[in-house]
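INFO worker-7 received task bundle
INFO bundle size: 2
INFO processing item 0
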Amino acid sequence: MIRVLIADDHTLFREGVSAMLQATSDTELVGEAGTGADALAQALALRPDIVLMDIMMPELNGILATERLVAAQPGVGVIMLTMLEDDDSLFAAMCAGARGYILKGADKAEMLQTIRAVANGEARFGPAIAGRLMGLFRQQRAARERPFPNLSEREFEVLELVARGLSNGQIADRLLISGKTVSNHISNIFLKLHVSDRAQAIVRAHQAGLT
């Protein structure tokens, strides 16, 4: 039997998943939690095989609860449950140690397949999620390979335009952002490149091959 703990602050959703698990021959519901703190406490006490963990919960969000749980019990299989499809949440869930990621609109078959796969030691993120993960990893690799990987994408764009000699106003027009936003980006660039003015930033950019 796969012992499962559900952690979600929506009672109706927990009840639906609970009914599904109880009607399935190889799964056993061992607990339910409505907050992240309760989820962590129950998981540490009950030691389930699988924790279905909502990302957004009161007291302690699912990402932090997962990180702490996996640190204490590395063998537990955490599957994130969420309505969110943004890349930041997906990447944060993986970094926290989640082995699965299910959108709440998934059908019963997909959810059970994911539970069984993760209980068997696999990582399961679904076809759509897997495709986005690959794209995310490609972006991360590209960021590491480019000069100044500590700059954000937008900061790197601004630095390129600064290196080409564009003024703040011209950069704002080119990127369709405000002049204040450009100034903020340039301040961050100075800080991250350890330079004190525009001229030094341009020298660093040219040394790195930006023209």
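INFO item 0 finished
INFO processing item 1
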Amino acid sequence: MTATIRDLRPGHPGDAESVVRVRRAALPFLITTAARVAFEAASANPAGRRRLLIAENGDGLAIGTAEVGLAYESPTPGLAYVNAYVDPAHRGLGTGTALLRAAEEHLAAEGSAHAYAWVLDEPGHRAFAERHGYRPSRSAHFLRLDLTARPLPPYPAGLPAGVELRTASDFAADPRPLHAADAEATADEPGDVPAELDDYEDWLRTVWHDPSLDKDLTTVVLVDGAVAAFTAARTDGAGRYGSAMTGTLRAYRGRGLASLAKTDSLHRALAAGYTEAFTGNDAGNEPMLAINRRFGYEICATETRYTKNLESTSR
């Protein structure tokens, strides 16, 4: 039986919990919570035309979900995204196709030219994407670290002159320096879809107030009082920690500050009771991959970014 596709119902806790259950089953390397799903729906920028779709079987059970919208932060017009997930126990029933069809119809109505989708680098997932007209681009890795398996790299014997460690919580009164740092690091991040975080109010609404952003475990490195590097942490409150972004501002690169930030954040995560750490890196981001290997992270899965020209298929 073909699944029924509908939108997430804002304020309906059962919907958010269903999305989390499907995402965790399909992609267990993501840090996701019902609070974050509800937050994303409530805080989405209207310019993104974001929709969160849910696929239900005949018994009303959510068996798939997809997030779809416009890449409004990109300076390149016409870019969009669609990321679909189907519960592995319910694959092969046409649910992914139904989700993708609904997502592409939405994007076509919004005038999107190109859709990007992350696809697990496994034969079945790749074949599905290619059957639907998507073509592979760059890849990225999920990495996992068992925080209890072996000791973390130690703190340096002493911080260099002028270097201080802070947390994001220390910037609660004025997070603008963190916005500026995030914007610069994001602009330099490898990827197919460039992003410009030039809207401070949007950043506050969608990033700073994200309930999964753990401000106490997010480490900020200051050099002579200025933000030089940071690692942003997301947690699920159930033992799982994720690096949302680690970056160093251009003027401070090559000094080991990103590694220092991660060292501090991971040590405090372990002390707070977290047992698993996850992160993701573009396959071509060798400097960050090297840092994570030194901490003991191991690749646990790979995704490939696929793209489809929606204009050619809508004619």
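INFO item 1 finished
INFO post-check item 1: Residues 95-109 form the longest helix (15 residues).
INFO post-check item 1: The chain has a mean pLDDT of 94.
INFO worker-7 idle
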